[in-house]
Amino acid sequence: MHTHDISHWGHSHDFATADQADAERRTRWVVGLTLAAMCVELVAGWITGSMALLADGWHMGSHAAALGIAAYAYAFARQRGADRRFTFGTGKVSSLAGYSSALLLATGALWMLVESLSRLIDPVEIRYAEAMIVAAFGLAVNLLSAWLLGHSGDGHHHHGHRHAHEHDHERVHGHDDHAHDHGRHDHRHGLADIQDHNLKAAYLHVIADALTSVLALAALAMGMLYGWAFMDPLMGIVGAVLVGRWAWGLARESAQVLLDAGDNSAIEHEIRRRIEADADNQVADLHVWRIAPAGRACILSLVTHHPRPVEHYRDLLSGMTGLLHITVEVNQCRQASCGARVNTPT
After folding, report:
1. Topology relative to the membrane, per the entry (predicted)?
2. Residue 273, Cβ neighbours under 10 Å: how many?
3. Which DSSP category does 7 fall into?
């Protein structure tokens, strides 16, 4: 007979993945690249006396600061992944950083809108050739940054957590078993469905900047060729609207995770289906919420006339991707009818 001390039943809540480590490394590269571009533009602007270069240099500085938030968030989550003060680990730091970056994106969009409107009303002289050089340089830097961030996770790393423990005891209302399971975490993602809000925020920052450079080049070209000076502030307004829309979407997604209000209906339906397809089990209470960029926690309470060992219910949910932490409560019903489920998915 094997005996275990209490540490056997404990487990880590560090759900960091290899993809996140790769994203942190690439984000640091982008911060370094942006700072280098800032220095080049500031030095060139000082030597040539170009206000356009100086202005874009300081803009690169604010861009690096925003990306620095993403880099810091990854480092914070990694260093405190085993800190017991964080009940379910530091997985939500990504969403917190994403929400903060969304606010910065929105602030930038508002500044672009106000500045463009003021220039539309009161036009300023534009040095087209010089401005196009700055825009082209900025576009090249941001395209390289977007490539670095966009290829994060392409190595298809896999990181799994598998831990289970159980304990049985009698309660006043019947027989309860609790099972805690760290499900297998195995995911691949692309930019279209990336769930790491921190990485998405960093990517949107460089894409927004690249979009601004593209619109600026188009407006400057039309201004140089046809004398349409109004196109520069007009393109600024278009860019502000697009960036503002991206900021709103990122803020909404990350806020839902921070408030445990994400859409988990599909995974909840699958949990109910697997549990209630077995014997006379009924799901009495079910809570699913995101605790990591690609992982969720689950608290499940079920009622049955014939309780089974905890391993049985854990096996019913095995293979469900993204369930990192599962708590199952089994309640024995001693009446003829156990009644309807307490709650239903919305």
Report:
1. Multi-pass membrane protein
2. 11
3. G
Angle between helices 197-226 and 51-79 (to 10 degrees): 170
- Concatenate the DSSP letters of all residues of 257-278 into one string: HHTT----HHHHHHHHHHHHTS
The model's pTM is 0.72
Domains and CATH numbers, the chain: 13-153+189-258 (1.20.1510.10), 163-186+263-332 (3.30.70)
Q: Do the beta carbons of residue 218 and residue 235 sit within 8 Å? A: yes
